[in-house]
Amino acid sequence: MSADAQSRPQDQVAGRPGRIDAVPVRHPGRWVAIAVIAVLVAMLVHLLVTNKAFDWSFVFQAMNQQPVIAGFLKGTLLVTALSMVVGVGGGVLLAVMRLSDNPILSGVSWVFTWFFRSIPRYILLFSMGTLGILFPQGLSFGVPFDWKLMEWFGLSGDLRFLNLDANQVFTGLVAGVIGLGLSEAAYMAEIARAGMLSVDKGQAEAAQALGMSSGKVMRRVVLPQAMRVIVPPTGNETIAMLKDTSLLVAVPVIGELFYQLQSIGTTYYKTFPIAVAATLYYLAATSVLMIGQYFLERHFGRGFGTKAPRGPRAARPAGAGGA
Fold first, then answer.
1. Which domain holds residue 161?
2. What are 190-232's pLDDT values in tens digits?
3. Quick check: 212 and 261 in contact, CB under 8 A?
4. Does 214 map to a domain?
5. Residue 190 resides in a domain
6. Which intervals hold domain ABC transmembrane type-1 (predicted)?
7. Considering only CA atoms, which of 317, 318, 281 is closest in space to residue 65?
């Protein structure tokens, strides 16, 4: 028994393959790509430093002007935030209407989405700025019918409980927020609808079986799980909305960033440096939004994905129990 036990390890060691001398695979294409990219980067840096058309001193002077900074804070960031609030709130409402069993609500949601997705935002903002011509007597809320109808019912007085100046409503930041918000609501409706449809119907049925109302099921069960699908495209839409605030020149919004930069460029006949200044502003703002989007996606994406859990518990084999 001892002879057999001593011979087995020797046989196994003798039967093992010898040392493998692995030769690393060469990738000449990588070095070629690195060389090409390095040359292109060097050319770009040389262009940025030596070309006098950039006029960096004027670019930074224009960026530091008080009207430009105020336009960036109020006309760009504020309009972006307010438009996204209108767009996200309206989009979720439209998505719920679209998924409703009521054909009227579903049809209204579809028509709204079809209409505002079909119109370019520049044309929508331009049209929004001219809507005051439709209401020369003011924008009234109440009974806007012929006063003969009131005489038939023996009524007297003014049944309009609110009357607004249309030229004040459909101009400036208000018109920009309304136009961009309604356009964004049409896109957010499809994003929210896709997120709601991604949640298994059994989740809602189980919640309803526990006695939860439809509204509570939507708030407590469906929407929290749908956020994993809704957040990434919503972040992209927010970044796109930030850039689309430059279209507010169609209203026009005097306090907007690009409007202020254009005014400076027209005054000093500096067109290209103004475009560079606007580019730097939008690059900085979108970079911050991308970082926020990353953390939001990581927060709502917890528990999903293909990454293995970390720690000693991840290495424990199945069925090992407490061993």
1. 133-169
2. 999 988 888 888 878 888 888 888 778 888 888 888 888 888 8
3. no
4. no
5. no
6. 73-293
7. 281
Please indicate, yes or no, if residue 141 is contained in any of the structural domains. yes
- The identity of residue 134, as a single letter, is L
Spatial separation of the C-alpha atoms in residues 116 and 226, rounded to whole Å: 24
Give yes or no for a contact between 256 and 245, defined as CB atoms under 8 angstroms apart: yes
Residue 216: the pLDDT is: 83
CA 220 centroid distance within chain: 23
Q: Please check whether residue 153 lies inside any domain of the structure.
A: yes
Q: What is the pTM of this model?
A: 0.73
Q: pLDDT value at position 58?
A: 92
Answer whether 247's CB lies under 8 Å from 79's CB.
no
Phi, then psi, of 140 in degrees rounded to 5: -105, 145
Q: Answer whether 188's CB lies under 8 Å from 238's CB.
A: no
Q: Are strands 162-164 and 139-141 parallel, antiparallel or unpaired?
A: antiparallel
Cite the DSSP H helix spans in the chain. Answer: 2-15, 28-50, 56-63, 66-71, 79-98, 103-118, 121-128, 147-152, 166-169, 172-197, 201-209, 214-217, 223-244, 257-268, 271-300
| Residue 94 neighbours by CB under 8 Å, 6+ apart | 109, 112, 113, 185, 186, 188, 189, 192
Backbone phi, psi, residue 164, to 5°: -115, 150
| Amino acid at position 310, single letter | R
Domain count, the chain: 1
Phi, psi of 163 (to 5 degrees): -135, 120
Residue 84 in this model has a pLDDT that exceeds 90? yes
Q: How far does the chain reach from its first CA to its final CA, in angstroms?
A: 33
pLDDT number for residue 183: 93
